[in-house]
Structure formats: structure tokens, C-alpha cells
Amino acid sequence: MTELLLSLHVLAAIVTVGSVTVAASMFPRYALKACAVDAAGADAGSGGRSAAIATVLHRVCSGYAVAGVAVPVLGIATGAQLGVLTDTWLIASLILTLAAAVLLGLAVLPAQRRLLDLAATPSSPGRWTSARPMAARIAMLTGIFNLLWAIVVVLMIVRPGSTTSA
């Protein structure tokens, strides 16, 4: 049973968290390109394509964020089977996972939505100057989200203080 739970946990992490990290990392570029259409409508073709891509990337982030709840659920079930729920490395991983989820749900996804809304508004002279700092902030938040998950992966592999550590 432990092997099945661990396999499902790792598979869920790869599919859901991997998808979110890639899509969220690509989002600012396409959303910013969608906002680059000038007031006269120049570059509307690629701006429309970029807006469509940014919309899909946002949907990927949102959908896989919801599905990603399976990762800590399966991780806790696996930890219970292994009897390591009170180990420091697992508690730290859970705290970092919660921090990543809060960051994604309360900062990254709403900021993506705001930037998509800005891209959907008719062109205005101030749109580009508003979009650039928004895209930069999303990129920074996404980088932090990705870093949190990288630390969780290291903790899962190294398991400091664990008696099963390699």
C-alpha cells in the first residue's frame, strides 16, 4: 500500500505542480505581449494570439492548482503509512507546501486574472506602463512559488534527520 500511495503522490506532484510551474512561468511573457497592442490597434494579430495563449496558461494554472490538492493529501497518507508524520523534514515540507499554495491562490492567480483583464480592455496609452510592473511582479511571485517547490523536492529526497535517509 505504501508503494502505491508514494507512486500516486509523486505522479500527482509531477503532473500538477509541474504543469503549474511551467504555465505560471510562461504566463507573464504572453500576457505582456497581449498588452503591447498600441492604441491604434497595431500588432493586433499577435496580441490576440498572445492573449489567447495567456488565457490558456491561466486556466492551466487554475485547474491544476485545484487538482494539486491531491499532492499533500497523498503525501500525508504516505507519511502516515511510513510512520513519519512527526518528522521535521515532513512538517517543514508541509509548511512550505502550504506557503506555496497560499502564494499561488492569493497572489499569483489573482494577479494573472488582473493582467488578463487589463489585456482585454481597449488599448490606452497607460496600459503598457501598468502591464509591465504587473508582469514583473507575477514573474517574481512565480519564481518564489517555484523555489518553494524546489525546496520541498530536496526535503523529500534528502529527508534530513530521517532514519531512512540515503
From TrEMBL:
Chain ranges passing through the membrane: 89-109, 138-158
Keyword Transmembrane assigned: yes
Swiss-Prot/TrEMBL keywords: Membrane, Transmembrane, Transmembrane helix
Protein name, as recorded: DUF2269 family protein
